[in-house]
Amino acid sequence: MMNDRLKRTLLIIGFFLVVAGLAFGLYWVFFRTPIVPVATKPGVVTPGGTLPVAGTGGPQGTASQTGPGGLPIEQGQPFQPTIPTGIPLTPRTRVLTANSVRSLSMSQNGQIRGYNPEDGRFYKISTSGDSVPMSNQAFFNVDSVAWGNSTDKAVINYPDGSNILYDFTTDKQVTLPKHWEDFNFSPADDKIIAKSVGNNEDNRFLVVANPDGTNAKAIETLGNNQDKVHVSWSPNNQVVAYSFTGEPLGADRQQIILLGQNQENFKGLVVEGRGFVPKWDPAGKNLLYSVYTSGNNYLPTLWVSGASGDTVNADRVNLQINTWADKCTWQGEQSLICGVPTNLDRGAGLQRDQFKYTPDEIWKINLQTGEKINLGQPQGGAAVKDITVTQDGRSAIFTDEITGRLIRFDL
Prior knowledge:
The protein is built from 1 helix and 30 strands. With 411 residues, the chain is mainly beta.
């Protein structure tokens, strides 16, 4: 027989066990957080230690008609389709120079030509970063450079308005008139175009001359419109400049006058916006340009349009990419490589200088299929200026506006 003390102890222990069991039951029924199994999307594999593999893109749409080269178009309508794809998983960026490089241009042999303001010399730079001076002569405090297309000639401008033509092949230079400005070479480099700005309105002309300044010929009278005219010699040799003197078309449209060497009566290029910045395609048939409107918060937007002969204004396409055309380069006649700012606020088109140092992403735009691919942001962040594509098409090279250094970005 159990004594009374043992019975009492067992009753107390039993009581506590019953209370604990009831408490756990109440918690399990009313207060426990249920464990939900993690769902895995079908077709997406996530290996340990790596980023998810991108899924398959959606189907591509078709346009109602096509332009030259199969470009999908619908007159004045947004570019279709839009297919952004993934950010790259591997580094694409290489810094080619430790020093600042300006005024980039691609030479005939596939090397980059550029000016180093720190030592005043011009260099040819390979895609691996090797650099060779183009001349033993130093050119200090250069303001701007207009490069030849097929030769190593350049018109070099200084802040005081002085201009020289320098041939880096022969190391010879010629002084050009100081009242000439805004230079450009013809496709074969056998002519130059400039604005001859005299002291009064009656002595201001658009002139074409030999590269050394001889045989100058006035092709258009500028009058008081010299600031509205900009030289831009097209690769097909038809257009030599454009002018903001077209018919008024309203606040968000304008007509750009295309000028030839012989006062040709070209169609006016109608653009849907203001702040026109152009970029010819390699054949001179089409024009990439950027404009802004009140309808898109005054953000620069890319368009492509026919711009040669009867195709002026034909096949206009809104690419729906917010950047400036001079941040882009043509890769052949069907693709564009563009620096697209990572952030643009309302009104950026009106005050571009405020976004000068905004880092860019590199985008590739296929004008034939409509595909737009975000290739990612250069490592460390870079603001694209003077972008060009290597001859093999594998890399873009540009000056970083933030650091001044030359950057290669593999495509």
